[in-house]
Amino acid sequence: MHMMRAIKQGQWAVLLWPYLLAISIPLDCRDEQGGLSRCPSISQEKLLDRVIQHAELIYRVSEESCSLFEEMFIPFPLQLQRNQAGYPCITKALPIPSSKSEIQQISDKWLLHSVLMLVQSWIEPLVYLQTTLDRYDGVPDMLLNKTKWVSEKLISLEQGVVVLIKKMLDEGMMTTTYSEQSLFQDDGQPEMLESVMRDYTLLSCFKKDAHKMEILLKLLKCRQNDIYSCA
Amino acid sequence: MNESVDPNKSKTRWSNLPPFVLSLQLNTMAAALTLLFFLYIAYTSTSALESASEQVHPQRDPHFTGCVSTNMETFRCRWNVGTLQNLSKPGELRLFYINKIPHDPPKEWSECPHYSTDRANECFFSENHTSIWTSYRVQLRSRDESTLYDQVMFNVQDIVQPDAPVNLTWAPLNESLSGIYYDVMLKWKPPQSADVEMGWIRLQYQVQYRSASSDLWQVVEPVTSTHRSLYGLETNVNHEVRVRCKMLSGKEFGEFSDSIFIHIPSKVSSFPVAALFLFGALCLVAILMLVIISQQEKLMFILLPPVPGPKIRGIDSELLKKGKLRELTSILGGSPNLRPELYNSDPWVEFIDLDIEEQGDKLTDLDTDCLMHRSLSSNCTPVSIGFRDDDSGRASCCDPDLPSDPEASPFHPLIPDQTLSKEASCQTASEPSSPVQSPASGELPFAAPGREAMYTQVSEVRSSGKVLLSPEEQTEVEKTTSKETERDVMAEKEKEKKEFQLVVVNADHGGYTSELNAGKMSPRLSIGDKSEPSLTGDSSPLPSPSPYHESDPTPVSPLPPAPVYTVVEGVDRQNSLLLTPNSTPAPQLIIPKTMPTPGGYLTPDLLGSITP
């Protein structure tokens, strides 16, 4: 069922991606192919820069949200116990290397796909997070706004990465085959502490993954022209 | 016996002590005791504190001081052995870690891959043992792994603290015009360990600077570029600059770089601008002062224009200045001894219309003569001289400075347009008559030379016998009000029932009645003759110059309107009028010298004719 939904999303994205791009990514209409009244394209470099910007912002906001949540809801002794065995990150199954040397050896294609995977796998959990946050008492509005903003930006990031893939790799749109192994079985109303811990884990995992996305994209950018020129 | 007595004595000795001494001794003992007590407490407390402090001194277990990664590729963990001395030996403490990598099978605890050699109590994790975005759990255990001292958990990307930037240099950019401030451009390089080229880490730099004298570091906003400009540094001041960096998405800054010192000496300007400006300003001020002083008068004239002084043509303006009223009045024909109160409030315009050609041609002489000698009146037409009944009855000038000698100063209102001929005729006529003057008057010394006999009008006859001569208001009043004044005068006089020296008549007319009228009224008059001016110009002989002094208290009480004028014989020493006595010796008339104040009512041309 999730796959069906994902496929549907993908189809919509395929059909509407230029339009979505035009809206979500403000274009800098530079005519590469010569005088079109309406510029449907953006240069690859600019697109990559834009995508990286998105990723940076998302990471920063997610970090702030995580700290906010930590301050508000997590008692101090438990703060160190995140990422414990209890609630592993949902994206742990994604085949993304975690050391620099390994990452360095990843190809551009694989980098982009990894990023796309990450982005796509986080869209839904964030929506879920919003609903759960609303349930808590005394949630600051800033936290809610941030999470909302992040989920929106994540969608636009996904679109950007898709376009980038198309540009750089000349590939068509890939339907997401990555199953979303969500922990969100929606077990009704878990008790407060459990729910809080789960959300806390969610936020910290997302923060980590946002950082990962950012690094991967930066690697990709600096790797252009086969020369690392990001001094 | 002594012994037996002694105790008693001793007792008595005790009791014989005065009470205050006893109390004093008790007090001192108490004080000493309390003091001792406090000292004891203090000692015990301090000793207790010492012992307590010794015991409170924490016996800390070995603990981690921090795990830091400088490049997000490797990291190292450091710990502190604590207070237990026996653990300071190497190998006593061991570090174990476990790293949860997502799809790797769960691992066992592994020991530190490399205990640092250059530094004690440090474990270094190389790239092979470092994975980002994974959770690490590091523990500090005793050698036999029986005791767990400390544990930390982290992700490597969270513990990144980059090394300090290297190659910090500066170059001057600008200098201000005054040479006091300047700008510099700072440049540095990222730390070697951080892989910025690949984009693995993005760094953010923070510059701090301070002048050598202050302790406060100025913090500049972080930048991601490897250069930064500093503005507004002072010359001749030593500045210290340092820089540090952190990962763009990280939390902690790394170490500071080595400080560099910036010093730019200020230029010694060969041209002291300040001195030049000062000199210029002083010169300007000096020139201004010179201008002001040299042109002082003109400036004063411009700033404070002079007020035009009083000026009457023909009269020396000196006389018009303050304090010289006497001279002025003498010139203008008034007596300085006049009673000013009679004139000052009266606005009257007087035109002295004396057409005198000769110096000695004094009208008063003529008039007096004419008045005095009736017999000669045929020749002398004093009326013609000055008694023209002209409606433009102008007042006469008074006769200033009458000498104390009795003199006959006839007072007649001056009439304008007096023709000289009449005067002349009078003069000729009067001269022979002058010796025939009444003995009272003698030579009729007139007003002091230079003075002219003035004519005036009797305004009031007081009960005391004084005759008040009116200050001449005839000129304006002449046509209409002169008559009114006459009427008033008449009315006043009618009220008086006492002795009258003069009976004036002719209330209907002004002071100037025609001869005809005079003639009519004369029979009714107690005053027989009057010298009435004939305003109409008829030359008629003067009535007999015998002032009719009515001594009866019931005189012509229906005081018929009598002409105002009377014949004055002379003026005695007291400045009282001597009217020609008829029956009773007329009391001396005291006619105040109602000399008209010339004031400013003289037209210059008339004045010219007046001045001697």
From TrEMBL, chain A:
The keyword Endoplasmic reticulum does not apply. Pfam families: Hormone_1 (PF00103). GO terms for molecular function: growth hormone activity; growth hormone receptor binding. Belongs to the somatotropin/prolactin family. Keywords: Disulfide bond, Glycoprotein, Hormone, Secreted, Signal. The keyword Protein biosynthesis does not apply. The lineage of its organism: Eukaryota, Metazoa, Chordata, Craniata, Vertebrata. This is Somatolactin. One of its GO terms (biological process) is growth hormone receptor signaling pathway. Transmembrane segments: none annotated. One of its GO terms (cellular component) is extracellular space. Residues 1-22 form the signal peptide. It is found in: Secreted. PANTHER family: SOMATOLACTIN ALPHA ISOFORM X1-RELATED, SOMATOTROPIN,PROLACTIN.
